[in-house]
Amino acid sequence: MAQKLFLLSISLTFILYTGSFASENDTPIVNWLLLGPVETQLPIYHDQKNVRNESFTLEKLLSYEAADITGWVPENGATVRWSGSSILQWSSMQADTVELSPENEEKPANAWAAFYLDSDRFSKASLTISSHHPFVIYVNGHNAGTKQESESGDSDPGSHTEEIVLTQGKHLVLVRTLYNPEINASWSLSGTVSVNGKGIVSQSLNPERFLDLETLSNQPQLGSLAISADGSLAAMRISFPAPPEGTGDSWLEIRETASGNLLREYKGGMDFGSLQWAPEGRKFTYTESSDGKTSLWLADLETGSQLRLLKNVSDFGSYRWSPDGSFILYAVSERPDSDDSGVRLLNDLEERRPWHFTRSFLYKVNVPEGTTQRLTAGLLTTSLHDISPDGSTLLYSRSHTDYSVRPYSVSEYQLLNIETLERDSLFSVPFGGSGRFSPDGNTILFTGGPSMFGETGTSVPDGMVANDYDTQAYLYDIQSGDIRPISREFDPAIDQAMWGGDSNTIFMITTDQSYRNLYRYDVRQNQYTKINAQTEVLAQVDISKDGRTAIYSGTGISQPVQAYSIDLRRGRSTLLRDPGSDYFKHVAFGEEKTWTFTTSEGRHIDGYVYYPPDFDPGKSYPVIANYYGGTFPVNRAFGGRYPKELYAAKGYIVYVMQPSGATGYGQEFSALHVNDWGIIVADEIIEGVNQFLDAHPYADRERVGAIGASYGGFMTMLLMTRTDIFAAGVSHAGISNIASYWGEGFWGFQYSAYATANSFPWNREDIYVGQSPLYAADRVTTPLLFLTGMQDTNVPPGESLQMYTALKLLGKETAFIAVDEQDHHILDYNKYKLWKASILSWFDKHLKGEPDWWEHKYGE
Q1: 851, exposed or middle or buried, with CB in 10 Å at 0-12, 13-18, 19+?
Q2: How would you write 687-734 as a 3-class SS string?
């Protein structure tokens, strides 16, 4: 009896081994971890036939899980709570055959045996477990096979063999054995492993390991942060994805910001969507959705009561509390009648987008009465920005198409008196942004690109066009209409801005080189002060009404997500939640170092390096160069779609660079992105990789890979036409023909309004043809892997298919991975793992000379 089992677990060896298997000979398992035995019983009436005309036999106890083994990490001395005061403890044993002793030889019993197999590369192996008694084998938590039969003591023990596939790294083998009191046979267990191929598989009892794909895919998530108005409480959502579909447990926690102590926990599948604290008291609102309809609830922590404010609203969008808590504004979408003819006229370029004609309008619900009023209607969406401090006025915007100006739309900003519905127009601009009222109601804080108010916010040399993805901050005087740019000479880009407790203090979440940092801005002093957080890349920040306390979540290099509160006056942070503390307890990470270089043009290029956890400077390592090359830097966030920690755990040195054009380094630097399309950046990446290799003798010049996605995927293709320094390239959702992307991608022409300002296929052949990789495909000499979601509306799949077609016809080494039913980002739980395994196995094939994993998945 044998089955195939493919295990996606990517990691490296970490500990000293107690045994190695490198041949096809059966090598016995000699080290075991044991848990139990624990007495069990057959259920009453087990001998009666059920509706299937079957009795409940002892062997069927194997299909009934006596314990949830999810999350078990066996090690010597670790404990498992069983029932009441009963606590089981793992213990180690060294023997070819494990002898177990039931407490009562006349009753059934469960016991568990475990060990770890560590493979130095992708390997195939045969695992055999033998016993007179029934057992189940689990490998990395997956049921790998079952032996249900029992053999008498005068017979040889029965066996079960599994043909298993081990990716590089450590794998847990867990055997649940069931004692059968009806046979006269010793309760023993033995096992062997034989390896097919070049891999070395070692056995150990130590759970310490490097990061692997399963661990990364199932890591705990923390989000939906919200702080109470008085700053004393923090709400957050915790979730744990889990196989087989990535759905697991998710719940809401309310914690005290001063101590991190848990005040309340809501589990059991309750849907706390879009949670917001009320402006006063310990109350919060949340949404509950089902079948496209949404209800809005108000929960009171003091009384325990819940009040439904809105019931079953179709197409409900976002909502916002009024400052005094007397009403809530919310948005509802409207759609036109469907047209099933299959033939339609496109009047505007944006009409290709299925949602283009969906419009959103504003409503008001009174609290606690639940009475409602519609505030806006018409042809255009009304987007709410803010409500004035006295609750009398709202700031909103509407946008309409205008192909005569970049970026082909104009946004009009207006004030609306909520009582009289009288409007007051502020201004109209082509480059829009968002706005927030100051606490005194006299000023609006706007964030938008450098060109939002013409030249007022730009700070670039003559002849350069500002990069309007480099978001700036402005103060707009409502009475006079005067505009004061406050970040023009401030290098970080403004991701989000919010007022503090007074009209002199603004807090800004920024893209600050490869970090995401929080700054305080003093309006009167025109001074920025960085607030030191305990994370490198902020994910969410929420600030109390008085501006004294904030909560934030974030990650960093080798730092999974955590949540903190911070006293904004003293700058002191308190840990609120670290959901990965136990989860990553046994995972070892490598070091990280900053590494920068100066180009031949004199530009300073930032970068950083990930090292394998077992890095030895005396050895030689393959290198992966990672970049975006577009308008944003590759930040230091943990994991993500392109997890550098995972690449390092696989034994690669990972060099991340931030070429010219990225935001977070000042406007002059970011403006280099405009009309570049690799003219500058390609040379910088090539020069940077060469300088990196020169400066790091342990980085193998013959084994360098390149990876990028979206604009970075374009850069991978372009680089392959310009240099042969790479041994392998990976392009996800890359652009091969700038003109076809410009015309076909849902946002192509609008992105180009920023990135290719005033340049078109008819007036800049040097960009649209000269910088398009497709027209230089014959120069590619490097094996190139293409990956794309086949429903990608941002960069259509045809961009990858065009270049793949060219390389195939040219006889070049290439491969194409099509991910069905996925858009620009691969978000499906299982498809993400297969997509990521494809990238890793491609690099293993070409940078390590280990093609087995790739060939196992896709053949030769």
Answers
A1: middle
A2: HHHHHHHHHCCCEEEEEEEEEEECHHHHHHHHHHHHCCCCCEEEEECC
**What angle is formed at CA 404 by the lines to CA 403 and CA 408, rounded to 5 degrees?**
40
Residue with tokens 């310990």: 282
First-to-final CA distance of the chain: 28
Q: What is the arithmetic mean of pLDDT over 474-478?
A: 99
What is the pLDDT confidence band of residue 3, given thresholds at 50, 70 and 90?
Answer: very low
Please work out, in degrees rounded to the nearest 5, the angle formed at the alpha carbon of residue 670 by the alpha carbons of 664 and 674. 150
Give the number of other Cβ atoms within 10 Å of residue 149's Cβ: 12
Quote the CA–CA distance of 642 and 634 in Å, as a whole number: 10
Dist. CA 360–CA 377, nearest whole Å: 9
Amino acid (1-letter code) at residue 308 = R
| pLDDT > 80? residue 248 | yes
With H, G, I as helix, E, B as strand and everything else as coil, classify residue 326.
coil
- Taking the C-alpha atoms of residue 235 and residue 554, their distance in angstroms, rounded to an integer, is 15
Q: What are phi and psi of 715, to 5 degrees?
A: -60, -40
User: CB-based burial of residue 321 (10 Å sphere; 0-12 exposed, 13-18 middle, 19+ buried)?
Assistant: buried
SS (H, E, C) 591-609: CEEECCEECCCCCEEEEEE
DSSP-derived 3-state class of residue 537: strand
Q: Helix H segments across 140-269?
A: 213-217
User: CA distances (Å), 14 to each of 119, 614, 621, 650, in order?
Assistant: 11, 7, 17, 12
Residue 205: how many other CB atoms lie within 10 Å: 19
Alpha carbon of 549 to those of 248, 441, 445, 570, 782: distances in Å? 32, 22, 21, 10, 53
In which residue are the tokens 């916010």 written? 457
Q: What is the pLDDT of residues 131-164, one digit of tens each?
A: 999 999 999 999 999 999 999 999 999 999 999 9
Give residue 19's pLDDT band: very low, low, confident or very high (50, 70, 90): low
Query: Rounded mean pLDDT of 349-361?
Result: 93
Interatomic CA distance for residues 263 and 269, integer angstroms:
19
What global pTM score does this model have? 0.94
Tell me the one-letter amino acid at 208. Answer: E
* Beta carbons of 590 and 612 less than 8 angstroms apart: yes
pLDDT band at 24 (very low <50, low <70, confident <90, very high): low
Per DSSP, 22 falls in state -
Q: Which domains does the chain possess?
A: 4-209 (2.60.120), 595-854 (3.40.50.1820)
Tokens of 386: 């803010």
Rounded mean pLDDT of 529-535? 98
- pLDDT exceeds 90 at position 595: yes
Nearest CA-CA partner of 669 in 485, 514, 456, 464: 464
Cα–Cα distance measured from residue 665 to residue 688, given in angstroms and rounded to the nearest whole number: 18
CA–CA distance, 649 with 588 (Å, rounded to integer): 9
DSSP letter assigned to residue 532 = P
- Residue partners of 498: CB distance under 8 A and separation at least 6: 436, 506, 507, 508, 543
CB of 501 within 8 A of CB of 227? no
Tens-digit pLDDT profile for residues 644-699: 999 999 999 999 999 999 999 999 999 999 999 999 999 999 999 999 999 999 99
Specify the amino acid at residue 326. S
Burial of 469 (0-12, 13-18, 19+ CB in 10 A): buried
What was the pLDDT predicted at 780? Answer: 99
Given a cut of 80, whether residue 270 has pLDDT beyond it is: no
Instruction: Kindly state the average pLDDT of the residues 450-456.
Output: 97
Interacting residues of 640 by C-beta distance below 8 A, sequence separation 6+:
none
Taking the CB of residue 53, how many other CB atoms lie within 10 A of it? 6
Chain segment 491-502, per-residue pLDDT in tens: 999 999 999 999
